[in-house]
Amino acid sequence: MPRMKGVTRYIAKQIVVVVLFVTLALTVAVWLSQSLRFVDMIINHGLPLGLSLYFLALMMPSLLAVILPVSLFIAVMFVYHKLIVDSELVVLRAAGLSPVAIARPAMILASIVTLIGFSLTLYFLPASFRAFKDLQYTIRNSYAQVVLQEGVFTDIADGLTFFARERDADGGLRGVLVYDSRVAGKPVTYTAAVGAIVTGDAGPRLIMQDGTYQQAQKDDGEVSVLYFDRAVVELSELAPSTDPRSRDAKELYLEELFFPTDVHNQERRDRLRVEGHQRLITPLYCFAFAVVGLAFLLSGDFQRRGQIGRIASAILAVVLLQVLSLGMQNLAGRMPAAVPLMYLGPLVPTLFGFLVLLQSRRGRRRLALPHGTQ
To answer: Please, how many CA atoms are within 13 Å of residue 104, restricted to the half-sphere of its CB?
Structure first.
């Protein structure tokens, strides 16, 4: 028994190291790809660095919920393949350990990772999405300059288009053009040498200096041009609405998804329930991927030359499981009666993997019996 505990700790330690490394590497890779969107906002649009980092931190739960099953699968395949190549598993099997016993460290870690996955999908994911959406409203109100980009014609709302040639280091705008047709029949075009966006109690406003005010007459189409020293255009469309907004499905907790109190549309209620079931199913793939990998590597004899084919088959099986998961989720979204099929995605491979490991154990026992023994 102490020997088995030592083997379990030895294998589990290696898996933990690889899981942490792969998870960190994948997370950093995704972070870098996403952070490029914030670099321009930080440098050219004045978005605070701390706020940008907070934005990236809110992405963590959703990233980890997707990355952890893949990281665990990669770690299990890497560690057990290394043990086979180094002939360590051959020694363990010769010592009388069954495939189930050899797989026990990975299954224990898979159970722990599955629990972490449940904490992510049931609490941290909706909490982070809710904070993300709330932060978007704050940015739209307090950092309107982020929305209005330089050198780009931006449609702020129906009938309101903005353009600025450049932005200086202080956030001031140069070469400003605004086309305002929000008042029917009275389109107005503003051009100004300089401008600035300020936020007050009434919301963000664009203040322009040294420019022209052009308006076409509705009757004869004649354009009247006036010069101004200072003009103000309200940008109320950039201010958050004071009305309570409806929460997206990803912002809702499990109870709110299964028992919504403010949703009366049956189609939306069905979509929310599908999202709730998906929250319960996603962590189960941590265990399913690990068991599938173990079943391919530990079944049969340990031969170095045959490992590449087993690894490729395991990867193909995991990819197919992921594709089927997406397909069944889409099917359940259209047909609520198909929701039970979503649970087959992780449960069937897990059961199949256990059966393969048990069958391999029984096969070795039969081979160990003397000839003629019943």
So the answer is: 13
What is the dihedral sign for C-alpha 119, 6, 308, 298? Answer: negative
CB 367 within 8 A of CB 305: no
Lookup result for tokens 């700790």:
9
pLDDT recorded at residue 140: 58
Separation of CA 143 from chain center: 25
Helix axes 339-368, 99-119, angle to 10 degrees: 160
In this prediction, residue 360 carries a pLDDT of 66
Residue 33 has φ and ψ, to the nearest 5°, of: -65, -35
For all residues of the chain together, what is the average pLDDT?
82
Q: Dihedral of the CA atoms 323, 326, 328, 334 (nearest 10)?
A: -140
Residues making up the chain, counted from first to last: 374
DSSP-derived 3-state class of residue 164: strand
How far apart, in whole angstroms, are the C-alpha atoms of residue 44 and residue 222? 39
The predicted model gives 69-94 an average pLDDT of 90
Starting at the edge strand found earlier in the chain, the sheet holding 188-200 runs: 154-157, 160-167, 173-180, 188-200, 203-216, 223-234
CB 83 within 8 A of CB 77: no
Q: How far apart are CA 15 and CA 19, in angstroms?
A: 6
| Residue 189: closest CA among 166, 163, 168 | 163
Beta bridge partners of 160: 157, 180
Prediction pTM value:
0.73
- Per-residue pLDDT tens over the stretch 89-122: 888 888 888 888 899 999 999 999 999 999 999 9
- Confidence tier at 369 by pLDDT (50, 70, 90): very low
Q: Which 3 state secondary structure label does DSSP give 225?
A: strand
pLDDT at residue 50 in the model = 72
Q: Can you give the residue ranges of every domain in the chain?
A: 2-141+247-368, 148-238
Return d(Cα 27, Cα 25) in angstroms, integer: 6
